[in-house]
Amino acid sequence: MSHTVEMNFDGLIGSTHNYAGLSQGNLASTNNTKLVSQPRQAAKEGLAKMMRLHQLGLKQGILTPQERPHIPTLRELGFCGTDQAIIEKVAKTAPNLLAMCYSASSMWAANAATVSPSSDSEDGRVHFTPANLKSMFHRSIEHSTTSKTLKAIFTNDKYFCHHNALSGGVHFGDEGAANHNRLCNEYGEQGVELFVYGKHDFGDSRGSTNFPARQSLEASRAIARKHGLRSGKVVMACQSAEVIDTGGFHNDVVSVSNKNVLFMHERAFADKSRLFKEVAAAYGEQPVHFIEAPEQLVSLDDAIKSYLFNSQLVNLPGTEGMTLILPRESQENKNVHGYLLDLITQDTPIKHLEFVDVRQSMRNGGGPACLRLRVVLNEEELAQVNPAFVFSEELFLTLNNWVDKHYRDSLSSADLADPNLLYESRGALDELTQIMGLGSFYEFQQV
Ligand code: SUG
Questions:
Q1: Percent of the chain beyond pLDDT 90?
Q2: Whose CA is nearest to atom 10 of ligand 1?
Q3: How many CA atoms lie within 13 A of 234 on its CB side?
Q4: Among 250, 266, 329, 381, the one annotated catalytic
Q5: Which residues have CB under 6 Å of ligand 1?
Q6: Is 175 a catalytic residue?
Q7: Whole-model pTM above 0.85?
Q8: Cα–Cα distance for residue pair 373/109, rounded to 1 Å
Q9: Annotated catalytic, 70?
């Protein structure tokens, strides 16, 4: 069998990164509303994280930011005139809408799509479904460009199959890989795909939540069908309502998987014993390690504030045992750090800790795991990936210089009304398409 790897594609943080308080139920987003952001710092933190993982020997890729502000959305909603006139008008009459069309939220690549490796799908191809992100307006405008980006990276339809984002409104609300885990012995072997939903939309209000439950069971089922997953190898599990109401808006805020390990908070799921039973039955003979952080040691509140589980659990080449790539905030929380130091001495596959700074993203509720989309690829598939999107030291340097040239040091909510920001953002993306060899990729380049 050819060697198969898990490649992480991180979202390059866009030049309009700001704190607009757009995501109800995401406490960082709400609590930091109108805080002044630092786009340059944000993008550099993201690039430094990619560089670190690349240096640690992991395959790293990149997803390009989307065009923001998104003038086509505003035109679609009835605003007309020059682009500058539209910005001025929306700033005066609908500032919240302006902020939504300015959000750099496509940086959170875990919400870009659900990806199923070729070893799980009936037709032996890698399947991609861009997430429709229906529950938040600012995110619901991402999927068509996400789809275009994924098609530009994974071009060969002999190996890759691209589906449209699910239609059907909030009943089919889909948040992508943030609510999807995969368990396997080796990446290249048949795995068990674990879909985690927050609501069952057709007529069942059990477990209803105060904060929005974003992923629906109906959406998860549709994706499993479309990806051609084998029925005995799919498990559907419900997020606990308590988690959603404590601020765990996506399942990747309270659990993370790698190979045969599911690392989670003990309260992450509505029915834990059923989940364990179903996963074990689907998985087969070899054991799955369910590693639970007990409430007594790490409260749900601490877990969500520190984003302990929004980490990347990885196997580093040449290193025995698994490594957790964690946000710095989980080192700064005494309880959480104490728990982690003890965890790596226990008899589990998790043996190493690595902390990264992604503070600018964290202030909008996006930790290390939110910033990446995992794509499992065998050697042949890997050879088909568009090399422009593969991370290298050279690309790191080029993009750092590009950020220095184009990004502002700081951005306040009032700055969004400044039409110069629109032109600066376009200037940056124009140069980015040259760096990445993307041609006229963005809508503003096509008029
Ligand atoms: O969808 N925040 C994002 C954070 C996404 C985190 N992703 C994962 N958990 N995988 C969201 O809530 C906030 C934007 C603002 O308020 O300006 C925001 O969209």
A1: 95
A2: 370
A3: 21
A4: 250
A5: 19-23, 26, 29, 103, 105, 108, 110-111, 136, 139, 178, 250, 252-253, 364-366, 370
A6: yes
A7: yes
A8: 5
A9: no
